[in-house]
Amino acid sequence: MASLKEFRAVINKTKLNSPTRYRIDIIPPTLLNVEELESDALNSTPLKVTPALKNQISMYCSEFIFPSQNLATVESRYIGNTRKVPYLKTYDDLSAIFYCSEDLREYRYFLKWQELCIAKDHEVNFYDDYVGTIEVTQLDKKLEDVYTFPPIEEVYPLTVNAIPLAYVRNNEFSRCTVSFNWR
Fold first, then answer.
1. CB-based burial, 130-157: b 16+ in 10 Å, e otherwise
2. Residue 32 pLDDT > 90, yes or no?
3. DSSP alpha helices (H): ranges in the chain?
4. Is the pLDDT confidence value at 33 over 90?
5. Average pLDDT over every residue of 166-175
6. Domain extents for the chain?
């Protein structure tokens, strides 16, 4: 068994990961890059999709949850014993939580992205027109890149959760939870 001294030496050499140091870069589909999207039910002011807004949405990502990896199994019998044998890897959806500005532009941004999937007239758009990419980079204490995960591709917002409003939440900020489908 390792001693406390050996344990400390290993920790000091390899460093532990801090879940609070990361950068999320959301690269939306090209159609969401238009300078001004039409007004919506939440706000009569058109939503201006600028590089500054896209940067702000990335910065306002307060939590990002990687999908779990699972093995689908089938029961199989080998010489009298029944075992679960894996045959396929499956993954859950991505999940992210974003702080919201006063005008809820982050929430509206993801609703507009969903409209690229299925328009107001219920027409389904072409897949390549509504998928984007998410890039996640782990940072060190000096906020320098340590590890960049492989890009998460063919991403689109599957669920944009409701934002609760309540008087008892006086000292909190509004947050928007988004689940993303991905390949």
1. bbbebbbeeeeeeeeebeeeeebeebbb
2. no
3. 4-14, 51-59, 105-117, 127-130
4. no
5. 87
6. 18-181
